[in-house]
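[job 4417] fold queue: 2 targets
>>> target A
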Amino acid sequence: MIKRIDNIKIPVGNEDGKLYQLIKKKAGGRLGYFKIIKKSLDARNKDNIFWLYSVAYSSGSESEQKPPLKKLENAPLVCIIGSGPAGLCCAVRLADHGYAPVIIERGGPVEERTAAVNTFFSERKLDTNCNVQFGEGGAGTFSDGKLNTQTKDGFNRDVLETFARFGAPEEILFLNKPHIGSDKLKDVLKNIRQYIISCGGKFLFNKLFNGFRAENGSLRAVTFRDVKTGEEDELEVSAAVLALGHSARDTFRMLDKNGILMEPRDFAVGVRIEHNAFEISRAQYGRFAKMLPAADYKLVSHAHERNVFTFCMCPGGVVIPAASEEGGVVVNGMSDYARDAVNSNSALMVQMYRTDFGEGLFDGMEFQRRLEEKAFLAGGSDYRAPCQLFGDFLRDRVSQNFGSVAPTYAAGVKFAPLSEVLPQKAVEALKVAVPDMASRLKGFDCPDAVLTGVESRFSSPLRIVRGEDRQSVSLKNLYPCGEGSGYSGGITSSAADGIRTAEYIFNVHYSAGRYI
């Protein structure tokens, strides 16, 4: 019989070995089955930091197994537009159910995409279709692969199991704040691709979805253009999943032109803030700092009328160029699996409302674009990013030299007043919020902390309106999902949305009885 024990406290240092011996003793010296269910760090008391475990074990050979998924015979053709977390997890679940999905992706496979991104980082030559935002894996490929989420979706566990199944570290299944690392995530993507192809599916890379054909209010076909040759093509489908991501601005315009109902959304904008990683660890862990992985943090400030919060925190990571349009600068954060870079960084986001940018459908999108264009100009019009030390930002002066923290933005930075790039409300809020956050995380307001702008792709500025049946209210058999649909945010919630969409499509076809 499998038993479970919660709240096991293990001191820092060789904790997994100590845990195994403890559970083996409880099992009477014979441990046939052992599984860590959850592992988190309790650092509330810096003089007594410990790991907290929940485990399942048995002295016999029992194991936990899920029943196999039901499959269809002669499953209809489903097309998935976009190969980010939502699109790929949707495709995997459909393949598990017997489908052979076709994935249309405007960017390249991860090998080609990595080369294009590296060229942009080193030579500042931007490919507007294959970059940090577009290509196999979506924007999350170059952001650390963080899998923690605030949403309580029943499919969150399925997301973790899917990534682990295709090569992500097994620890993501039990860590309280799981992450894959951008370096390891690329191999996971290749494994997912190979699986889908082995199931009869196809990947159409470097193909831009640019239209569709409908009959009697139902989708019949999607059209796409090869971004390298310009060749147009059409694919007849029974359903299409729209997993566009939050940066497909041209596609949003096309959908609106073709009568797909969308609505504007509020979002947040801000900057990246960088500190020395060890200083953050020392503030969080005290004397245990050298014994533990790079520390993370999650901070919120209500000190100003505009809420300010940290987002996508990258322990031991770097700030990266994340533009997808010519003449714009966008920043993001990224960590590899080891999280061993000198700096730690996080987005510092300020909430924006439609009263700030307008009520029109595309006003928010154009607001984001204007900020990116301002950042481009402030950085020297060559994809360098404008940056400023926090102490100088607070005093409205242009920085002259770096202090104890050096910037990591790969395309280079230029000292510039960020107050001339960001909305005035955001500037005011950041000046109040950072010192307030420092009251909870010592040193967060370090004068040498580096601010780099602009972080503008926090979430989609639009929502593609769908009904309870997960279909567009404007067109049957069109399924918006993931971050670009405006119904999720981040890797895990977007991937879960993709799995849920796949299950809905399967149940519709399965219940029809024609394909059983």
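>>> target B
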Amino acid sequence: MSKPRLQPGPDHPITITPTGSRVTVTAGGKVVADTTNALTLQEASYPPVQYVPLADVDPALITATDHQTYCPYKGEASYWSLPDAPNSVWGYQEPYDAVAEIKGYIAFYPDKAEVRIADRTAAS
């Protein structure tokens, strides 16, 4: 059975914009990511999520897992683990066209890593 594939629209908007500030991600006292190229994804009424380029993530601090989830708006999500937080990082390696900008970017669950935008703490 095929999975539903939905387009963002007025009832479920998704916007992706450059964050425009430095974003750092820390976990377990270590800097996992540090970038000035983050994207802010705002989906419907959910809190905004910071997506950071994989190129700006310390590869020694994340490990790919076989866990996956599905979003009808974005596609199949792949997961990575932080040293003490399994499946706490996700990204869309082949996102749907409507959110193609997040290809090559990952996001972090806010209860597993601290995501900071410039001088403030982000929701995610």
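[job 4417] complete. Note on B: The two ends are 33 Å apart (CA to CA).
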